[in-house]
Amino acid sequence: MGAPELKTEEIIDKYADMVYRIAVNQTGSREEAQDIFQEVFLRLVRCRDRISGEEHAKAWLIRVTINCAKKHQASFWKKKVFLEETAKEEPDKKAERSYEAVENADSPVLRAVKELPEKYSSVVYLFYYEEMSIAQIGRVLGEKEATVKSRLYRARDILKIRLKGELS
Amino acid sequence: MKQQTESDDVWSMRESYKKELTDIHAPAELIERTKIRAAAEEKKQKRHKRYRSVYLPAAVAAAVMLIVFCFPMWNRTAEKKGQESVQPYLGSTGEAPKSAEETEKLEEVILLQKKTVLPMGFLKEDAWTEELEGIQVKFVREGGTCIAAYAEENGYMVVSMKTTDLDGFREAVRRLLQNGGNLYEDRK
Questions:
Q1: Strand order across the beta sheet in which B128-132 lies
Q2: Measured between beta carbons, which residues in chain B are less than 8 angstroms from residue A37?
């Protein structure tokens, strides 16, 4: 069944959680994730003619969500707010601020993944949560398999060090 | 398979990660809001598509037709304007010529020439002199042409008109003299 055959509402219902999770995974902020969520589905409406098949739609949504999150993180507004906020914040709060997204103290892995560089966190999400193969991740992200493999390897090493003691 | 090849740490991390992410759901209110915005965007897209497929070609076709039909007309108007811009106008008491045809007529019949000496034709026996507007004007007829000449600074102004109507010619010369010998004065 091609994506154009699915109604927009059906696509939103089906992939809402996935898009939202990727956005939270990438940005660490639920507020930002909401903005990204809306942007991604509005883009989908505009590009629907170019998307064929449900698999293609899923891959498209993953890629666009990651790109939107990247763009959002790098945006001037975000940087400005961050600079102003961090200048006012006390040191203790600064450390906590990056975890605001998760809000839940019972999400140590998610917090640690969020702290990874963006290129690592997207690979971790796709490999561990979506259970995609290295080749599939390469196709979705437009990267070589070797690059995906090395990112996954490094991400795993970093997470092991950071989560030492936290995971029993 | 993954479970067997990965260390216990990684496996534990992976399970925790999956569980933490699975607990995250898109808020229902956000989904509803997005659906409403998406529906509005879809309508906008449809309108835009309709515009591109129907109105835009129609507008382009209309513009092309306008250019095709109006360009020769503009050209002709420009030519007429071009003619009007060089035509002479005789006299200040009469009305300024309104149409190109009218001015064309004037252009055909009046010829002004500046001569340093009086042309030999005025020395013929049938030449005569009249006073028009206080100026001595010499007249002579040659075939179907009436010719007049009057003294000006450093020579003579010779006025010729292809007509047999002497009275009309005389009137034309009178108007010319009233206007100080300037055909274009009223045009300026």
A1: B111-115, B155-161, B145-152, B135-142, B128-132
A2: 26, 30, 34
